[in-house]
Design brief:
With 181 residues, this protein is α+β, with helices and mostly antiparallel strands. It has one domain: Alpha-Beta Complex (Cyclic Phosphodiesterase, Chain: A). It is 28% helix and 35% strand. The chain is built from 4 helices and 9 strands, in the order E-H-E-H-E-E-H-E-E-H-E-E-E. Helix 2 packs antiparallel against helix 3. The chain starts with a strand and ends with a strand.
């Protein structure tokens, strides 16, 4: 079974992202099946959960809550998960944590994906977007969300281990809170 390490947002950031999500779903006439807003960090196949818990606790111990920045674009990317994704700046704490999880989980013998330089993103909807995108070929694959002068800063408050059931619903297995400032 596949498990996912994901980064979750604080309440204020979630509200900001939900308004962007609703606007995109309405604007491009996408199905309104909302998913929990998160940043997927790693995908792990059939892990030993006790060993994984120990490794993750050790890895996130020194980290505090941190901020990320949206790039201002949304993208339909067939190579990731065939869904509409909000792109984020791939720099700072999030990049460091992403690389650290990848390296340490490989070192401890977990079965994870090999590509460490993949761009980080926030999935906006489920993969049903693919059918809508093919029906209307006039829509571009990259959408500009904001003017260059406006910045969207979001705060990451915790890391969670999820298991998806029937590709429909995420089930949190374990939650790891980051330290306060």
């Amino acid at each position: 079974m596949k498990y996912y390490l994901v980064a979750l947002f604080d309440e204020e950031s979630c509200k900001s992202l939900e308004s962007i999500q609703r606007g995109l779903l309405r604007k491009y006439k996408l199905p309104r099946n909302h998913i929990s807003l998160h940043i997927p960090l790693e995908t792990i196949d059939n892990p030993n959960l006790d060993k994984l818990d120990e490794v993750v606790l050790k890895l996130i111990k020194p980290y505090k809550k941190f901020k990320i920045e949206l790039t201002g674009s949304a993208e339909f990317n067939e190579s990731t998960n065939k869904a509409l994704n909000l792109q984020i700046e791939n720099k700072g704490y999030i990049k460091k944590i992403h690389r650290l999880f990848n390296d340490m989980l490989k070192l401890h013998g977990f079965n994870i994906r090999e590509r460490v330089d993949s761009p980080l993103y926030i999935p906006i909807n489920t993969p049903n977007f693919k059918e809508n995108h093919k029906k209307n070929n006039t829509q571009p694959t990259v959408f500009n969300l904001r003017e260059s002068s406006q910045k969207n800063i979001l705060k990451i408050s915790k890391i969670e281990l999820w298991r998806f059931q029937n590709n429909k619903r995420e089930i949190p297995v374990k939650s790891y809170d980051l330290r306060n400032y």
